[in-house]
Prior knowledge:
Elements lengths: L3 E6 L6 H13 L8 E6 L5 H8 L6 E4 L16 H6 L4 E4 L2 H6 L4 H13 L3 E6 L3 H5 L3 H11 L6 H4 L3 E4 L13 H19 L8 E3 L5 H8 L6 E4 L6 H8 L4
Helix pairs in contact: 1-2, 1-11, 7-9, 10-11
Amino acid sequence: MREKIVAGNWKMNTSIEEGRQLVEDILAGMDRVPEGVSLIVAPPFTHLFLIAHLLGNRKNPGLAAQNCADKKSGAYTGEVSASMLASVPCGYVILGHSERREYYAETDQTLLEKIKLALSEGLRPIFCVGEVLEDRESNMHFQVISSQLREVLCQLGPEDFKKIIVAYEPVWAIGTGNTATSDQAQEMHAFIRAFLAETFGDLAESTPILYGGSCKPSNARDIFSQPDVDGGLIGGASLKADDFLAIAGSFA
Ligand code: 13P
């Protein structure tokens, strides 16, 4: 049985007070989360310490950062290291989100550095891959995704790979309201698993692969019902506890 995960990527949203309220509302509704489903919240850096405190010793929800530095420590003004995140403590870090690849010029090479540092600090990376609309329309989407996987995840050893969570987030579906159909999601998730199996064999059977891109309560059940979809990475809808919990409830 693969892990089932619903993770909320808050992006650059919420004040500390709003973030605190959101977590309290999620905690108050945890009885809506089916057994065996893990929630993860990924607030901005500034909120992590407070939210770690609110979560206390709970394993569920887990806590993720949205990024980390590609350097270990030192004179890198404005950066936050993997070891700082581990000391919060944070359990996870989102890496390779398309917004970071596009707006902050993150490359496969920097992402590989970040992943290695995160893993060395005991953080589990949630590694995002996804194609832009042009890639899909020119039938290049499988090639784009395989390259993103080959240059980063396939460079890891098997022990490190075991900790990885993959998120497939088609860029054309993020924040647009245009969700991938459940068939499109399943097709790509199965492709990702088969591609990873070429390097990691049976280990890829256990890799959670989450779908992200305009996932909401009204479409989550259909998407999550697909055999290779192990949950979701939720943007906009994770900012409302009720919607986030309803999405997590879609596994029932
Ligand atoms: P939306 O759910 O807002 O489309 O965002 C998805 C996403 O980018 C999660 O990382």
